[in-house]
Please model this.
Amino acid sequence: MKRITLTVVSMLLLIALALNITACVSEQENTDNQSKCENLYEAESEAPEDSSLIFSENEDTSESSSETESSETESSETESSEGETEEENDTVPPELKGEDFEILFGETFDYKSFVTVTDDYDAAPEISVDNSKVDLKKPGTYNVVYTATDKAGNSSSLTIKLTVKVLPGTDYTPPKITGKNFSIEFGDSVSYRNQVTVTDDYDEAPTLKIDNSKVDLDSPGTYTVIYTATDKSGNSSQLKLKLTVKEPISLEKMEEYVTVQAQKILASITKDSMTPLEKAYKIYRWTKYNHIAYSKTSDKSHWIVGAYNGFKNRRGDCFTYFAVSKALLIAAGIETFDMEKHRTDEKATRHYWALVNVGDGWYHMDCTPFAAKRKNANFFMVTNEEIWAWDDKYYKGEHTYLPEGVPEVATESIQDRVNYNWASLKY
Ligand SMILES: [Ca+2]
Ligand SMILES: [Ca+2]
Model:
């Protein structure tokens, strides 16, 4: 059945060609022939519009051509090998012709304009270009491989030479950036520009762009800085350097770090409109909950060291919580006093916390998150009486201190103002 149809179509095509009209059968299932019609129609654009034989269902040519592709595959699979279709007759690959060519450095061009292709059946075989060996930024001669494939899948290749040439006096070489990875002490400023030198064959002062967006000078670590140099002719090159911000080693450097961190955290948890008491409560909660993990030891050589380790490692013991809260209180401009437990013997555990004064006298503030069984350990602005009552019940002598040199602690309780469950103040 198909064979007869095909023959009829072939005959019709021949007639149509002879009459300079395009013919097709609209209900034709073999879309291979439809595509042939289309091609003819495109080629013979002067064909009479009113020809009743022009098929009418292919207004959307892109759609029809994709249909064509899929049905082609089907037909070549299902057809017998008797060779009735053109694809089956087509066993000869397309022929590519082209000469070696030259372009000027920087010139734009179309690779395909340097070759022509012909095929025995396919009017427009596909051409692919492999220019992976070509470096247009560098004068020289390169191989370009063209491959032409006809509709039947026959393909042939042609390699021709592309020469990128430069006129004398042309600047085609990008600037050269030289520099080494570098490091700075924590807290020091950095001159990015001074880390590299840039030279160029033509341009005395190529532009240099520095991308330091990945660098955080406030946090010790190693970061990538990207330098991009461009000469007047638009040639550009890039160099990536590593910048290491060293760990603070001196107390002074640690203090800089602590100050910066405390200010950042404070800015994220408080507003200027808050009262000192509200700010102190935010500090108490930030330090006590979810930000510093409890560990049994810490370096207690100086509160700055404690705060530094607390901010940086986010873990520590009571000394760390005390030191971190102190740094935050200082950043908030709130008066604070260091408290250390009075130990009756050397074996007793140490403990540290703070006294805080927001204007109404000194109160205890202890940010250490005591173990769960002591969950009523709420020590925001508590009096001696209140904190010692807790000590007597849960942790004997934990907040005992020698009064000498210590500010007098207020006796009036403000606990009715604190809503520990809601993490808020009542007024
Ligand atoms: Ca062919
Ligand atoms: Ca140059």
Summary: The domain at 95-165 is CATH 2.60.40.10 (Immunoglobulin-like). Residues 134 and 142 are 5 Å apart (CA to CA).
